[in-house]
Write a structure and sequence with these properties.
Radius of gyration: 25 Å
Organism: Paracoccus yeei
Function: Involved in pyrimidine base degradation. Catalyzes physiologically the reduction of uracil to 5,6-dihydrouracil (DHU) by using NADH as a specific cosubstrate. It also catalyzes the reverse reaction and the reduction of thymine to 5,6-dihydrothymine (DHT).
Subunit structure: Heterotetramer of 2 PreA and 2 PreT subunits.
Largest sheet: 8 strands, parallel, barrel
GO molecular function, one term: iron-sulfur cluster binding
EC number: 1.3.1.1
Shape: globular
Number of strands: 22
Structural class: alpha/beta
Number of domains: 2
Distance between the termini: 56 Å
CATH topology of the largest domain: TIM Barrel
Amino acid sequence: MADLHTDFIGIKSPNPFWLASAPPTDKEVNVRRAFQAGWGGVVWKTLGSEGPPVVNVNGPRYGVIHGPDRRVLGLNNIELITDRPLEVNLREIKSVKRDYPDRALVISLMVPCDEESWRDILARIEDTGADGVELNFGCPHGMAERGMGSAVGQVPEYIEMVTRWVKKHSRMPCIVKLTPNITDVRKPAEAAMRGGADAVSLINTINSITSVDLDLFAPQPTIDGKGSHGGYCGPAVKPIALNMVAEIARNPATRGLPISGIGGVTTWRDAAEFMALGAGTVQVCTAAMTYGFKVVQEMITGLRDYLDDHGMALSDLVGRATPNVTDWQHLNLNYTTKAVIDQDACIHCGRCYAACEDTSHQAIAMLPGRVFQVKEEECVACNLCLDICPVENCITMRELAVGEIDQRTGRPVQPYANWTSHPNNPMAQAAE
């Protein structure tokens, strides 16, 4: 049976599944229940400075995008950092860590951008016995307007400066949580690394308005007739998160920087994909808010079974796919495939035909009896028919071997060649 124990920047946990800093990790009772359910770690909901607690709205805090079956695809929130007194949080953190010494307990922090504020909060966190801190440079709403959260995370110089303060005033491992609301995520990651960060976590939520109430004419969630942008998370953001994790993992300037992956992790497979792209742990929020804490049990079982089936250790999975992520210009432009429809599996719904005929390359014919057949002389193997087919494996892609005639071009398939040397590339011609 695969061993899922994880040592992430010196923080040990029985598995790589951590709850992200969010409402599910706001108080002791929640965190204890999470650990009892099997979570390997928790990032405590973001703490602020001593003083009057942050005030959250007393109305709706969440907006949602549903799929046709009411499944949650994306969740928007306008909740701020913890609105509970700092002293209460610190006391509860100490109590939980005392009773769960084998679980990862990391504390998310967001305080004003001055060295004294960071020095003071770090000393108090160290007294709790917590395993590390996560610097919340990602929250896009409410706190950003006060010069914190993504207001820091969007300025690499600020990230480097604050990270240096944290490493100067604390011996705890430091994770920098990055905002996705930026053009190039590699720049803040590089800044965190220069500042001495032990790891980065990403992505935080994406700035968004999920919907508009067409009776009130206000964004949802609506507070007294008004709405605000919030932070978007859940399954819908996973592709964005995977790309940003991969960009950091394969960037020469940050290669080897430990990553905690966040963004739409709902199943063990989602987690495995993040880890294959370089994440050492994954953090989960929306799935727990949707299905409850016990969702982690399926994640643990699924990941363990996958590793056993493939004869892999957990460490073998981390970064396994990173070398296969490349820039478009290095893709093999001579690689050729063709769609194949399994007539025995086909249910004759016609989706592939409609999609290809109306929006693609008119490469599927509808024969008498609603039999659908690929026209190889037109097929560019765009994959659209496969992606929209409701029957798994009914449509597959057949690879053409080098030398085989491509019916669309009438020419044999050629060996590997990419855009950098392609005759249509004017830059390649100029280089010659």
